[in-house]
Each structure stands twice: as C-alpha cells, then as structure tokens.
Amino acid sequence: MVGHQATDIVIELYDGKYHPVDSKDIAFQMAGKQAIRQAFTQAKPLLMEPLYKVEVVVPEQMVGDVMGDMNTRRGRILDMENRGRRAVVTALVPLKEMLSYAPDLRSMSGGKGSYTMEFDGYETVPPHVYKALVKDLAK
Q1: Strand 76-83 and strand 86-94: pairing?
Q2: Angle value at C-alpha 73, between 76 and 7, nearest 5 degrees
Q3: Quick one: which of 58, 75, 55 has its CA closest to 117?
Q4: What one-character DSSP code corresponds to residue 95?
Q5: Helical H runs in 48-126?
Q6: Centroid of chain to Cα 62
Q7: Which CATH number fits domain 48-128: 3.30.70.240, 1.20.810.10, 3.30.70.270, 3.30.450.40?
Q8: Where do the structural domains in the chain lie, given as residue ranges?
Q9: Residue 8, Cα to own-chain centre: how many angstroms?
C-alpha cells in the first residue's frame, strides 16, 4: 500500500479468459496490480518498520533536550544514566526518525554529543503514521 516490499504472500488465480484482441501482457499486469491493491486494502495489512536501540552521550546539562528530542522522534526512553559529567540516554527509535539525527544532535549539543545505533527488531507502524504514508503515496 505504501510502495514497499510485501513478504509471505500467496496469490492464486481462479478464473480468467483470453481474448485475441484485448489480452495483451500489459492488460494482465494492470489487472493484477489492481487486484492486489484491492486485496491489500481489504486485508488490512500491517506495515512494519525497523527499530533501533540508540545510545546518545551528551554533557549532562543537555539531557533534557535529548530526551525531548527522542520523544518527538517517536522514541521510547529505556534508560538514562550519568557517567561523570556526561549523560547517556538509551532509547528505541524507528529508523525513519533517525535519518537526520547527526546534524540535529550536532546543532543541539554544539558538537559535544555523540550517538550509536544498533538494530533491535521490527515494530508495527502506528495507525496515524500509516495513514500519513498512504496519503502521501496517493499524491
């Protein structure tokens, strides 16, 4: 529905007719795409997104900014600890929300922050995000 790969799908064609004038390859391709799109709409598929465990290290006075920023990125804070004068924030964040993080963290921390990311798994995209993706695709 949003232009991404679908997996673990089986499609069976039960009926079809050949017509010497109208049965062109492109006609079958278009009919197939339309049938799959209609089936997906009726099946209410789940869209999964990659989730990353992110560890952000910043000067301790900036921890509030980092935690707020993680929340705006749909992140879930897992832990916050102090290591000397540095704060370490650990969160689970969708990859899509981290694509512009390096320059954002640099700006937020005055170049004094760093972060690492590690793949953690997949999670179902929330309904409001799914609807926005489908709407953008329809444009």
Answers
A1: antiparallel
A2: 85
A3: 55
A4: G
A5: 63-72, 101-109
A6: 27
A7: 3.30.70.240
A8: 48-128
A9: 19
32: part of which helix (H) or strand (E)? helix 25-43
Model confidence pLDDT, tens digit, residues 16-74: 777 777 778 888 888 888 888 888 778 777 788 999 999 999 999 999 999 999 999 99
Tokens 């997104």, located at residue: 49
CA 11 to each of CA 14, 35, 40: distance values in angstroms, whole numbers, following the listed order: 10, 10, 12
CA distances (Å), origin 1, targets 49, 135, 137? 14, 10, 8
Dihedral, CA of residue 57, residue 129, residue 51 and residue 95, to nearest 10: -60
